[in-house]
Each structure stands twice: as C-alpha cells, then as structure tokens.
Amino acid sequence: MKKYIVKLNQQQRQQLEGLITKGQAAARQLTHACVLLKADKGEQGPSWSDEQIREAIEVSIPTIERIRRRFAQEGFDKALNRRPQPERPEKRKIDGECEAHLIAVCCGSAPEGYERWTVRLLADKVVQLGYVDQVSYKTIWVTLKNNQLKPWLKEQWCIPPKANAEFVYHMEDVLNVYTRPYDARFPQICLDEASKQLLAETRDPLPMKPGKPEHPDSEYEREGVCNLFLASEPLTGKRLLQVTERRTKVDWARFVRELIEVHYPEAEKIVLVLDNLNTHTPSSFSEVFEPAEAWRLSQKLEVHSTRHPWKLVKYGRNRVECAGAPVPEPAFAHHSGCAPAGGRLATRSQSGSSHHQLAFYCG
Questions:
Q1: What is the mean pLDDT of each run of 10 residues along the chain (363 residues)?
Q2: Best label site of 107, 118, 223, 285, fewest CB within 10 Å?
C-alpha cells in the first residue's frame, strides 16, 4: 500500500480539469495536473497506479512519487506548482558590477554610424571592454529589462516658469475650480480635442474568442483624418464624444452649443475648463450664430482657461480613456472606409502590430 495517497475534492478536480482544457498554463504545471487527476483515489477518481500514469503521461516514477508526497505533506497548491528555485549567483554571467558598467555604456554615445545602442552592439561592447568573456544579446536584453534603471527612456515634465505671475494666477484659478463641491446647477466640465488618423482594414480580423482578444491584421489603408471633441464631467463620470471633419471655431461653437442645449439644458451655467487654443473662446459663437444667440450662449458659460500650453491642468490630472469604445460615425464619412465599422482610429505602437480604437486623455 502506498504511503502518500491523493484524494481530490470536487472543487480541486474542476480546477485541474479546467486547467488542462484551457491548455494555457506552463507545461510542468499541466503535467502535475494530469498526474494528480489520474492518481486521485477519491470517489470520482480513476485511482491509476504509478505504472499506468508513467505509460500514459510519459513521466518518470520518481516524479510521480514526488508529486504524491508534496500533495500529502504540503497541500494541493504546492503539488500543482513547481517548487521555487533558489538564486544561483554563480550561474549569472552578468553580476552587479558588470551590470553597472553595462548601464554606463547605455548612457554613453552610440558607436559611429548608429543612432542608438542595440542589444547586439552592447553585447559586443561589454566583451570588447573585458567585462565578460562572452555573452549573448538575449542575456543583455533580460538584464536591461529587469533593471529598474531605463537610461533609454525619457520622461517629459511640465516645468513652470520662474516668477511668472500670470502662470500662478491661472494655476490657482483652475485649482480653485477643482475644489468646488458638485452642484447640478453648475456642472464642471473639461473639454479638449485631438486629431486622429482613420484606418481601413485590408483583411477581416480574426474574431475574439474566450481568453483571446481580437487579432486585426497589421496592414491597413489610410483614410484621412478626423477631429474628436471630448467633454468630461469627472465628478459624475459623464463623457461626451463627437467626431467632426475639422476643428475650426465653427465646429467648437456647435459642439459647445450642443452641450448647453442638449446635454445640460437645466444648468444655470456650465463651468468649462479648457486650454488656450485660439478656437476655445466664446467669441467663436459669433462666427456661427446671430449676435443675440451668440451672446445668450456665452452667458451660459463660466470659462476657466489654463492659458499656458506648458501647464495643462485638468481636474487632478484625471485620465479619461475610451479604449475600444464604440466611436460615433462622422457625418462627413461618405465612403465605408471612414466608418468605424469598416476601420479604426489610429493610435499605433512603434511596432505597428497593435492599436487602440481610441485612447484620449484629459490631463
């Protein structure tokens, strides 16, 4: 009679069966799951012998015995997963000192004829400098990936000017708006816009499946550009998006009038925070509407401009994302290539292999 007996409950059996059905776990974990299921001596278990398991799964008898022992002594999770491996510094080709030299090389100038360092160039350089005898470019890649220092990355910051009274005034004005409590009579709205490229699919994308996202093809056709107006009310989470052909004063005026008359008809006055683009001014109403109507609309707004392009303050830097959200079809799209149903808005990565339908940020 065996010393270590495996008995699984219903929940554990379902977990192991689901793991094997999906097939997305590590190969070692799937092997352990198969061994545990076949070795189960519970009411619903097959109670296979070690010899039967060895022939069916093609694992050694010592491995099966080790899984049984870990299940009996350490529990279900320990038997299913691989034992954590200890650190082995002696096996590392790049130690801490060599890693420091590698980072220093990254921060230096690239070789003549190259715009930047590549992992292959770095691998050759550290060997040339005598830090290691030999090393592969993949080792260099893993070392840089795991290091917290990323000398090739740059972070951009909003650096305010020194002793600038106008900047301080507008910053304090906008921050004062942020501290106001919610009042339905005076909704606080951030408004911004962005230009996006329209792309048409050249092949039908592979549809979404359980556990797998949609796979669009990397090739596409350019179908011009469009403008996106986005109004966000952070205190309620409300977002309003409109697609237009251009972003002129006329377009801005019509979008803001829709905010006033359609979306916030009960508001006494809309508190509007926006940047200092030349179209973002109540004077744009006069480009479209009669003087009396333009004046009436301007009186429905309380405008707070950030004024300075280097400090675009937005409701606590609240980020509004609509990635993957349905995008309204632009009124100017007269052919199917511009329609979101047959294409996408371009916000592509450098590799060109992935995209977001819409990634729009306020702040």
A1: 82 91 89 92 88 91 92 91 75 81 87 90 92 90 84 70 78 87 93 90 89 88 92 92 92 95 95 90 93 95 75 35 40 38 47 31 32
A2: 107
**Residue 359: both structure tokens together:** 């990634």
Domain segments of the chain as ranges: 10-80, 92-146, 165-346
The CATH topology of domain 165-346 is Nucleotidyltransferase; domain 5 (3.30.420)
Identify which of 17, 8, 6, 2 has the alpha carbon closest to the alpha carbon of residue 68. Answer: 6
What is the bridge-based pairing of β-strands 270-274 and 343-346?
Answer: unpaired
In 291-328, which positions are buried (b, 16+ CB within 10 angstroms) versus exposed (e)? eeebeebbebbeebbbbbeebbbbbeeeebebeeeebe
Q: How far apart are CA 123 and CA 138, in angstroms?
A: 9
The CA distance from 246 to 250, in Å, is 9
32: closest CA among 69, 4, 3? Answer: 69
pLDDT at 307: 66
